[in-house]
Amino acid sequence: MGEGQGLSMLAQAKLGEAISLPKPRQKSSMSVEESIARRRSVREFDPAPLDLRAISQLLWSAQGVTSDRGFRAAPSAGRAYPLELYVACAEGLFHYRPREHSVVKVLSADVRAALTRQGRCDVFVAQAPVSLIFAAVYERTTNYYGERGERYVHLDVGHAAENVHLQGEALELGSCAVGAFDDAGVARVLGLPKEQKPLYVIPVGRPLGR
Hints:
The protein is of the alpha+beta class. The chain is 36% helix and 19% strand. It has a single domain (3-205), classed as NADH Oxidase. It contains eight helices and seven strands. Strands 1-4-3-2-5-7-6 form a seven-stranded antiparallel sheet, sandwiched between helices. A hairpin with a 4-residue loop joins β3 and β4 (102-107). The chain is globular and about 45 Å long. The two termini are 25 Å apart. The mean pLDDT is 95.
């Protein structure tokens, strides 16, 4: 699947339509040690789009299913898996389905600029070709662990986000952790269900000048 073909599938998809993602790879030429050593926050991005294989790999690293028993790429307290993951790009807004390793188109509009205006995210969120947005349904964890479950949800998103940062390095992509935003604004821009609370935004792209 070529870059243009994959992105064309996203652009042409109808609202509610599921798009199967390329199978993620489990080996690369960069070791995890090198990825850790290289990781730095990037705030200036080449606007060139990412191909669907790169998007697939980033989503899988965050929440992809990695075993027949349903375990995922990042640990989750009690296997509650409270996180919901979205990807915003020029082709629209898409919701990741880990079990099927697919995305569902939820908005046709490019919401990246709106995230910076209405959601008060940093301006480079609009400049990066892709932004991953983590939201959480706290009740999936707190129904089992009570009030302490809120802490576990925050640990969960930290685990998943670090996977994204390290996977980005392995793909020679830059990323940045963004936690300063208006929660209600981001939820409104994305049209999140009431029970989903936005926690973390990660713009990803080729570092400018690299």
